[in-house]
Amino acid sequence: xxxxxxxRKTDIKSINAISLNEEQKEAKRLIIENQIVVVTGRAGSGxxxxxxxxxxxxxxxKQISCIYNTRAAVxxxxxxxxxxxxLNEKFDPYMEALVENLNKCCTNRNxxxxxxxxxxxxxxxxxxxxxxxxxxxxxxxxxxxxxKGEMLAILTRLGKSGKxxxxxxxxxxxxxNSTGEINGLTYVIELSxxxxxxxxxxxxxxxxxxxxxxxxxxxxGK
Length: 222
Known about the structure:
The protein has eight helices and eight strands, in the order αβαβββαααββαβαβα. The chain has 222 residues and is an alpha/beta fold.
């Protein structure tokens, strides 16, 4: 099997169907040029979309062989244990955000199902990440629901040619913390302030209904 071309050009032009605004283009540039990038922003800021588009571009340009996706096994108060079926079936709902955003980037509706079927887009539950080396790209979603220990386990999987792209929003945490320990998103943001090679960008523009912005302003303020 031919190895993918690991040289990733700095051109942020997409070969996908959806366009990005200026701050999203900057986020994509950071993803292209760096191994670890953190993308934060409120609900509707498009952080998951830009991560998906960058990863899909890498895949289509044969610069990677696979897009991996992980996230905390908890969301809106529920964990994997509350879902029926085997592990793969349980994790499927946690792939929905990535799959939805990949679909937005494709003109052919069969493209993403084919990528999943051929193993080019895979779920990688955080519980099973130890021992794995990431030489392709790993998208970490909803990082505010990860613990510091889980984030450290993820970051230390990075291979020499791999990329880890992390997104999240500390206003949307679904975990209760009674120990006072910082969560995984806060931990990697703090790392980005101390380690130059880890980049962090915060998206500000709202891409959903203006009403979403008003609700968030009421709930959290500026």
